[in-house]
Design goal:
The complex is a heterodimer of chains A (426) and B (313). Chain A is α/β, with parallel strands linked by helices. Chain A contains 18 helices and 11 strands. Helices cover 45% and strands 15% of the residues of chain A. In chain A, helix 2 links the parallel strand 1 and strand 2. The longest helix of chain A has 25 residues. Chain B has a two-stranded antiparallel sheet with strand order 1-2. Classes of the chains: A alpha/beta (426), B mainly alpha (313). Chains A and B meet through helix 1, helix 3, helix 10 and helix 17 of A and helix 5 and helix 12 of B.
Chain lengths: 426, 313
């Protein structure tokens, strides 16, 4: 008898563990149901602790709307796209879905997984909202951008001073390469690189595409040649960390810049907030600044690339109306103010917002940094269509082979052209 | 591994006396209790393994992006797959990995088991040390090995340069050497586990056989070949089957170490299944690839069983 009871208890315990184990992984972080009659609004986010904009937005919104209780669903950043896809496939009812990249947005929108929010977007200050066209699908919008990121150049003023190199004001790529070579110094553990190019393909390809006007999904890739030449030469001469080392050690761009191993790092504006935070925490004790992205030739408008981050409403949302109201707020003045305050670049770009942005303590206040912040043109990182992700995979594979030196630049570009035309565009 | 043990003695089926009826009732009760014990596990297996497996077989003939209604498209997924260069590259890479991984792991695990199958002070430490990689987090293993394999600053290439090799391989940054690098890492990781299996097998071989062989004048090699190898046959067969199946299914190590790169030089079938299904949302196409992988593994395993049966006869 006693044994039976024990066995039953064991079975029950196992069942409870299994159920809570499953539920806990994807469930809302703050438990189900609204608190004190508030309407719960669930939002999918990545790396909640390390992405302060979410907390900033949610806290500000809850303060303005006391009847709403925002519950975030935290997902590992690297697995975000796959996890959201899986959730949606399972009929998940999360109200608001954060669109981490336009490519995933296009996939969800084309599968009819998102609600049409054209009416919300129509009410926005469309003139001053960056990258809005990235969300247009056949004249409709299925997401509203609250944040935009574009690429600029981070540089270490101390390393520039020590090497006696002028600050990178309106560089061409040739001048950038020269500066990188002059800045490189040391050997072994003390090696300082003039520049660090992160291993993503966009570091080369999206810059080339934005500045030459080349189409990354067009099937012709000759426009990439010059940019590859610059980057490959720099790593051959030891002025930039070689790609193979960066990739095999998963070197972070933050580590390279914050430990003063690289004097210049082209990177997106999302890095500003963490860099300021690291500086406040005393982990960064050198002077740094922002400069505009180097250009192909002198005197050109500053052209760079970037992409929006936005919120969308799930087709199966439990609280559609509340979700739409949140979208309108986040993409408008309220959301912009909330995230500008912590150093995240809002999609809404008005003078008030920029001013609020540079109020942030710890941000370099020199003119060059401010200039870097207002590029004349920000192109979309990659055009969005139903073939984008297939082409993305091919371009990434060939990028690796060029960067590790297994293919010459000409060969790599020829193979991109051949494979994209043969495997995707045929 | 033979079917002999499954055949019941005929006697138990005959006899209808009241006593044997009572026995039967008792037997049925025992069976029922047995079933109740495996039921919770089996329900999970049914819901999360068996039904999805059959669903995947059906999906292989459909087009489905997980949101739309699945559409029957016959063999089109297979047509597309056999016409795709990436599929063939992934298949060849998977086979290449298996050909490298299985014999190396088997050989080294056996060698280690023989070395550690003796009564020595502190032998437990060495056994644990060899087994340790198997219980270490795979991500940590991959990250550390990636550092060791670093083409310029990694200790492996520095050692190679120190002993006079002018152009050491680029390991994970080279298409030719990325797969060997992954194989080396996986052999290092797996051999401890299979060593334990071999150790168990070795200890089941009676010592008298070795003594008898020695008395007959057999040298060490002859003792190994004529006593150890036959004595280990069931273990070896089990290890071989497990290793082959796991090699064909390799996924985690590749994803963390090379993510299929450089280019497509280490892309394997499981990874392609994941990419096509979870990343791209082509669940039909991805099921078709998994069906092919299943058939390959099934065929190889059946062939291994047949060969084993022939040997035992």
């Amino acid at each position: 008898m006693k044994r039976n009871v024990l066995a039953a208890a064991a079975v029950a315990a196992t069942a409870v563990l299994a159920l809570t184990g499953c539920g806990g992984a994807a469930g809302p972080a703050e438990g189900g149901g609204g608190e004190d009659g508030k309407t719960p609004l669930t939002v999918s986010v990545w790396n909640y602790e390390g992405t302060p904009e979410f907390k900033a937005l949610f806290d500000a919104y809850e303060e303005e709307n006391p009847d709403i209780d925002i519950q975030h669903i935290d997902i590992l950043a690297d697995d975000y796209a796959e996890k959201v896809t899986t959730m949606l496939a399972g009929g998940d009812t999360t109200d608001v879905l954060t669109m981490k990249s336009p490519m995933e947005y296009a996939r969800y929108a084309s599968r009819g997984q998102l609600q049409d929010v054209s009416d919300v977007v129509g009410q926005l200050d469309t003139e001053n909202t960056a990258n809005l066209d990235a969300y247009e699908v056949d004249g409709k919008y299925f997401a509203a951008p609250y944040r935009q990121d574009f690429w600029l150049l981070y540089y270490n003023k101390d390393l520039f001073d020590a090497a006696g190199v002028e600050y990178p004001e309106n560089l061409t790529w040739d001048e950038y390469a020269e500066a990188a070579k002059s800045l490189a110094s040391g050997e072994g553990g003390n090696k300082v690189y003039g520049a660090y190019h992160h291993y993503w393909r966009s570091v080369v390809q999206a810059i080339a595409s934005a500045q030459t006007g080349g189409d990354l999904i067009g099937g012709e890739y000759d426009f990439l040649a010059d940019q590859y030449q610059t980057v490959v030469d720099l790593q051959k001469e030891g002025a930039a960390l070689d790609w193979a080392t960066a990739m095999s050690q998963q070197t972070g761009y933050r580590t390279m810049f914050e430990t003063q191993q690289a004097a210049m790092v082209p990177m997106g504006t999302w890095y500003i907030a963490p860099l300021v935070a690291a500086q406040e925490a005393g982990e960064v004790d050198f002077n740094w600044g922002l400069a505009p992205m180097p250009q192909i030739s002198d005197g050109e408008d500053i052209t760079t690339f970037g992409s929006p981050t936005g919120f969308a409403v799930n087709k199966n949302a439990e609280h559609s109306e509340e979700a739409k109201a949140f979208l309108a707020w986040a993409a408008g003045d309220g959301g912009a103010a909330a995230i500008a305050e912590i150093g995240v670049v809002p999609a809404l770009q008005t003078d008030t917002v920029t001013e609020a942005y540079f109020q942030l303590e710890g941000l370099p206040a020199d003119d060059l940094s401010k200039e870097a912040f207002t590029p004349e043109e920000t192109k979309l990182e990659m055009p969005i269509s139903d073939v984008t992700s297939d082409i993305d995979a091919i371009l990434a594979e060939e990028h690796e082979l060029i960067m590790v030196g297994e293919k010459t630049i000409e060969q790599g570009i020829a193979d991109m052209t051949k494979r994209v035309q043969g495997e995707v565009l045929n | 591994m033979t079917t002999q043990t499954l055949k019941r003695p005929k006697a138990s089926r005959t006899g209808t006396s009241p006593r044997s009826q009572g026995n039967r009732k008792q037997a049925r009760r025992t069976t029922l209790i047995g079933w109740t014990f495996i039921l919770p596990n089996f329900l999970g297996f049914l819901a999360f393994t068996l039904i999805p497996v059959f669903a995947a077989f059906a999906l292989a003939f459909m087009e489905w992006n997980s949101f739309s209604t699945p559409e029957w498209i016959g063999l089109r997924n297979f047509q597309e797959m056999f016409g795709s260069e990436t599929f063939w590259i992934a298949l060849m890479n998977t086979v290449g990995y298996t050909i490298g991984h299985v014999p190396l792991t088997l050989g080294l695990a056996l060698l280690l088991a023989m070395l550690l199958n003796r009564k020595l002070k502190g032998i437990g430490f060495f056994r644990v040390a060899i087994f340790f990689p198997y219980i270490t987090s795979l991500v940590a293993v991959a990250v550390v090995w990636n550092m060791l394999f670093n083409p310029t600053t990694g200790p492996i290439n520095q050692l190679l340069e120190a002993i006079g090799i002018a152009n050491p391989p680029g390991w994970t940054s080279s298409s030719d050497w990325a797969m060997p690098a992954v194989i080396i890492t996986s052999v290092w990781r797996d051999m401890g586990y299979y060593m334990i299996l071999f150790l168990a097998g070795l200890q089941a071989i009676p010592n008298e056989l070795y003594e008898a062989a020695e008395v007959d004048g057999a040298n060490a090699w002859q003792r190994f070949w004529n006593v150890t190898v036959p004595g280990l046959r069931p273990t070896t067969f089990f290890v071989l089957v497990m290793l082959t199946v796991s090699s064909f299914k390799v996924f985690d190590l590749i994803v963390v170490m090379t993510d299929g790169g450089p280019g497509r030089s280490t892309t394997v079938l499981s990874q392609l299944i994941y990419q096509e299904g979870i990343t791209e949302g082509n669940f039909g196409y991805s099921s078709a690839i998994s069906l092919v992988l299943f058939l390959i593994v099934l065929t190889v395993t059946v062939v291994q069983f047949k060969l084993q049966q022939r040997k035992e006869r």
